[in-house]
Structure formats: C-alpha cells, structure tokens
C-alpha cells in the first residue's frame, strides 16, 4: 500500500499488435514498429512509485526532452514531484521555455488524468506553491511533505530538502548569487554537450564534474545528508527521499536509508520503487539519445489540454 490513500489500478497498456497496420501486400509491420510513421516502439517500464525532482522548467539547462522520454517510457501507481519542478526564480527574471517543456507539463497532467496519484511537494524554486498545500490542482495534490509506505512496509519521509540548506534558509541573497553562477555553468554545459553530440559522444555533466571536485561543495553535501537523515530519524521514518542538491544517491546513514532522486538539469535521474519494495536510481542519460529514440505507442493526443506559454508570466507570480 503506497500510503494512507486508496490504491488504484492503472489502465492496461495496449499491446503492440493492436497498433499494427497492414502493408499494401497485407503483410503486418515487423515487431517493435508502430503504425505511426513506422516508428520504433518501446514497452513501458512499470514501477510501483516514481520520484523526480529539480526539473527547473523555464531554464535553459532543463533537460525536458530527456524527461519527456522518461515519462512516456514509464508507468507507476504513484508519481512524486519532489520540488523545483518549475523554476519560479528564473520565470521572474526572464525564462526560456521550449516545446519540450510544454510537453512535459502536458504529460504530467495526462498521467494524473489517467489515474496515477500525483503528489507535488514544492521546493525553494517553486516555493510559491506552498501557499496551496492540500489543494488539488488538475488532479495533482500539493503537499508540504509526505510519508510513503513501501511495498515491504518501510516508512519514507518525502521532502524537497531546502529547509536544511542554511544558505537558502538564512541568506536568500547569497542563494540568488549562487543560482546565477550555476546558470552560467549550465550554459557552458549545454555548449560542451552540443559538441559531444556532434561527435557521437554521450551526455556528460560539466557542472556535476566540477561540483564534486570542490572541497566545500562535497562538505556541504555531506552535512546536508546528515541533517536530512537526522530529521527523518526524529520522525520515526525508516528512510528519507529528497532532492535539492542535484546529486542522486542511495546509502545507509545510521538507522536511516538516504535516497536522493537527483535532477533533470545535470544528471537526468529518477528514483523508482519496484513492486517488491526495492528502490533504485535510473540514469536516463544512458537510456535516451536525442537523435534516435524509441517511442511508446501511447502518444500525446492532439486535443489534450495544455498550459499555454502565454500563461507563464501569471504562473511566475505564484511560484
């Protein structure tokens, strides 16, 4: 049982055979090919629970194409959005919004509409949504935090984690300076990976590489992990799931299991729970290549509701 709310049964997926079309000689398409333009199809990976955070929609560094492919390629009973999904800081200053980012919003709304329980736990970059706790927004429930029970009976505290970041908590202007420097790193990272892509090389995060070679950054992450786990232990939780620091990790810290689902700016990672209660991190940068992709048969419908780009300035006032 995922938590105190009732469980649901996800819609059965269509089998590939139901989408096959006949060729002029009445010969069916080969297995793994959809009726839409002969595109390759991929079976969806099914999980009990999925956690994603730190997408930073509205920024140049957001890897929306990777996330969109992930959301199309997976299915779960519960989806947790663990903060910083929309970057309200950037939206106020001048945002960058792509079609892929709009498609991510559409996909999440579609997932909620189809019956997946979607819980949004705001972070510091979308903190304006904390004014709407326990409100249902288009099938998405906003919570300050949540407690999740795994299939094997463990209790996990779910928080974004910014409340343990002393820079964000006590000196917001320092956090904004850090954010500006970080955006510069991400732009550099985008340039580096554009060159790597032309050379046929896989995605690589320059900002993550530099971050974990700076002594102070490593020390901060260590202190952050200890603070988060201490809070979980005081709440009687067996583990904690968080985001915020853009570093995916699973490790035991004392009596508490620490899980960080990473981000979709640097590492393109998600935390997933299998149906037996096992948790693991998926690195989607190794699963998806922007040039050649396999797509599931469950495509976005042309008549789906979509958040128009024109509405983003109003959205910025709330996040």
Feature tags:
7-stranded mixed β-sheet; alpha/beta; Purple Acid Phosphatase, chain A, domain 2; 319 residues; globular; 29% helix; single chain; 5-stranded mixed β-sheet; disordered N terminus
* Number of contiguous helices: 8
Radius of gyration: 20 Å
Q: Into how many domains do the coordinates divide?
A: 2
* Main beta sheet strand tally, sense and closure: 7 strands, mixed
Helix/strand-derived category reads: alpha/beta
Distance between the termini: 32 Å
Fold blueprint:
Blueprint: E1 45-52, H1 64-73, E2 74-81, H2 88-93, H3 99-113, E3 117-120, E4 136-137, E5 140-142, E6 146-149, E7 155-158, H4 166-170, H5 172-198, H6 206-211, H7 215-234, E8 239-242, E9 249-253, E10 256-260, E11 269-273, E12 279-283, H8 312-316
Parallel strand pairs: 1-2, 2-3, 3-5, 7-8, 8-10
Antiparallel strand pairs: 1-11, 4-5, 6-7, 9-10, 11-12
Can you characterise this structure?
- The two termini are 32 Å apart.
- This protein is α/β, with parallel strands linked by helices and 319 residues long.
- The chain has helices at 64-73, 88-93, 99-113, 166-170, 172-198, 206-211, 215-234, 312-316; strands spanning 45-52, 74-81, 117-120, 136-137, 140-142, 146-149, 155-158, 239-242, 249-253, 256-260, 269-273, 279-283.
- The protein has a seven-stranded mixed beta sheet with strand order 4-5-3-2-1-11-12.
- It is built from eight helices and twelve strands.
- It is 29% helix and 18% strand.
């Amino acid at each position: 049982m995922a938590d105190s709310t009732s469980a649901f049964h996800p819609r059965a997926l269509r089998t590939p055979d139901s989408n096959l079309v006949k060729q002029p000689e009445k010969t069916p398409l080969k297995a793994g090919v959809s009726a839409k333009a002969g595109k390759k199809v991929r079976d969806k990976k099914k999980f009990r629970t999925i956690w994603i955070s730190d997408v930073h929609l509205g920024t140049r560094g957001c890897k929306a194409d990777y996330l969109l492919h992930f959301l199309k390629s997976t299915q779960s009973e519960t989806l947790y959005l663990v903060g910083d999904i929309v970057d309200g800081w950037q939206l106020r200053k001048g945002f960058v919004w792509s079609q892929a980012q709009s498609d991510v919003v559409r996909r999440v709304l579609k997932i909620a509409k189809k019956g997946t329980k979607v819980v949004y736990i705001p972070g510091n970059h979308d903190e304006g949504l904390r004014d709407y706790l326990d409100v249902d927004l288009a099938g998405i429930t906003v919570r300050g935090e949540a407690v999740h029970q795994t299939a094997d009976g463990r209790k996990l505290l779910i928080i974004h984690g910014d409340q343990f970041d002393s820079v964000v908590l006590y000196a917001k202007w320092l956090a904004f300076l850090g954010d500006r420097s970080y955006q510069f790193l991400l732009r550099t990272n985008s340039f580096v990976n554009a060159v790597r892509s032309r050379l046929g090389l896989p995605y690589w995060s320059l900002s993550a590489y530099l971050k974990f070679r700076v002594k102070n950054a490593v020390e901060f992450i260590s202190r952050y992990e200890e603070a988060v786990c201490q809070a979980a232990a005081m709440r009687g939780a067996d583990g904690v799931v968080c985001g915020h620091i853009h570093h995916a990790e699973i490790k035991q810290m004392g009596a508490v299991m620490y899980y960080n689902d990473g981000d979709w700016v640097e590492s393109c990672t998600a935390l997933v729970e299998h149906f037996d209660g096992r948790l693991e991190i998926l690195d989607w940068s190794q699963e998806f290549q922007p040039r050649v992709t396999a797509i599931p048969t469950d495509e976005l419908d042309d008549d789906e509701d979509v958040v128009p780009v024109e509405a983003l300035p109003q959205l910025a006032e709330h996040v």
